């Protein structure tokens, strides 16, 4: 045995390493949960339900990702808030204005196919257009929302 090693250091375990996996999610098979993420203010969730906002929690930690599919009604407004993690938002239908997200602190208008990355701890608000907005949000942590 080489100097500086022992039988214990060279021993292997009988526990196999976890095999890589693929996870498939069929959006049509996932219920509109409307449930709240980690630390989401209750008043924000109640307002969303009352005004017709809906959410499907599609990916819930598999591979280190969290993904929601959300549908917001026309002219819906999400108050200024922040998250403790970055997020990627992509518009599927409709559109919205993301307030204070432009390079000069101005507004950014998102339309079908547009996306935006919002860094952790960045404060912003969203107002949907007249068609409302369906969008996907991808994160590396479950949602933790703090109102500004």
Write up this protein.
The chain is mostly beta strands and 148 residues long. It has one domain (31-147): Sandwich (Jelly Rolls), CATH 2.60.120. The chain contains 2 helices and 8 strands. The termini are far apart.
Which terms would index this structure?
148 residues, mainly beta, Jelly Rolls, eight-stranded antiparallel sheet, 2 helices, 8 strands
Strand and helix layout:
Layout: H1 7-10, H2 42-51, E1 54-60, E2 66-72, E3 77-83, E4 87-99, E5 108-110, E6 115-118, E7 124-139, E8 145-147
Antiparallel strand pairs: 1-2, 2-7, 3-7, 3-8, 4-5, 4-6, 4-7
The first-level CATH class is given as: Mainly Beta
Content of β-strand: 35-45%
Largest sheet: 8 strands, antiparallel
CATH superfamily: Jelly Rolls
Terminal CA distance: 62 Å
Q: How many strands appear in the DSSP assignment?
A: 8
If you average the pLDDT, what whole number results? Answer: 87
* Contiguous helical run count: 2
Number of structural units classed as domains? 1
Choose one word for the global shape: globular
Quick overview of this protein structure:
With 148 residues, the protein is mainly beta. The protein has helices spanning 7-10, 42-51; strands spanning 54-60, 66-72, 77-83, 87-99, 108-110, 115-118, 124-139, 145-147.
